[in-house]
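Notebook p. 47: complex prediction with zinc ion.
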Amino acid sequence: MHPYRGKVIEKMETAFIYTDAYLDYDYGPAHPLRIGRLKLAYELINGYGLLDLRSAQFLPTLKAEPKELAVYHSEEYLNILREANEGRITGEAYLYGLGPGDNPIFPGLLDWSLLVTGATLQAIDFVASEKGKVAFNIAGGLHHAMRSRASGFCYINDPVIGIMKLLSRGRRVAYIDIDAHHGDGVQEAFYESNRVLTISLHETGSTLFPGTGFEYEIGEGEGEGYSVNLPFPPYTDDEVYVWAFEEVVPELIHAFRPDIVVTQLGVDTFYNDPLTNLDLSILGYERVLHRIKDLAPKWVALGGGGYDIFNVAKAWTLAWAVMNGVELKEELPEPFFKEAVKMGIEEKELRGRARTPRRSQNRENRAEMEKVVQYIKRNVFPKVKS
Ligand SMILES: [Zn+2]
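Predicted complex, structure tokens below:
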């Protein structure tokens, strides 16, 4: 054996994929998804020096080929997106989920989707071709897009296209989605498959879009047991969330034995997110990320929701630090802080003061989640095999 072989295998090689070209696109002034959040996250990551790590590579985003979208999305839907990309609005577009509201028609929306999906495919390729163990596409994770319909700010489902690429290379994939919204598009794509284990942790569909993701949605046919849902009640805090994660996710990952874990790392679970009702803090988010790192033999990380842009920047900076095994100092880097002040952000610390959980809500939420966890243990655990 080569004397350095062990060392090479142990080396944690990571890739961060990004381009300022994202900023050429805009969902519109009133839309909650502000693409500038990606730039802010990039600036904070760079400000901490996390793109200069010896183990880390920076990969500028390359657009996907239009034909790469057709592995999942229907031809008629892609034609509508091509029309919309040129700013042409046909009456039919409404039938495919496009129009004023969540999924606006803006110039270049297909080009934007090709960039996002391209970055996901670069992350997939980096990890699947053994160049490294971890890759992070902060622009990705657009988990609501359906085969023939835009939904929830998502036009093209980059997680599904990335996972399909891994399947075509014979890999087993576990998908873990920690966005506040149910990962419905990804669940639907693999609902009848036992080659992809999807696990979504989210605010219950009783109180939040898209209204799905209940514990009894466990997959169908060969896929029975391979769709897993943890719907949390409003105001769930770090303690209950991390407890439920620990009860369910590690055992399922050990039973399934994936080659690669793909994650959607939405940041809209935080107590101060303007669109949702969960009550997590950055501390709970960080604990879950450490656990995912322990559990994933290889890790393709995608971004996701998050509508307080400072939360997004801080949480994905912390995520990238976890991926690289780096501890960050609490004080935000000076150049970043100077920019942040101009945007009205006055916090100087990465994690800030941990928020006091709402204990009164905690007991009811814990009781509710104990029922959900028991349901999953009874109905899902026995079915999941490697
Ligand atoms: Zn979300």
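Notes: The two ends are 30 Å apart (CA to CA). Residues 1-10 have pLDDT under 50 and may be disordered.
Next step: compare against the earlier run before touching the bench.
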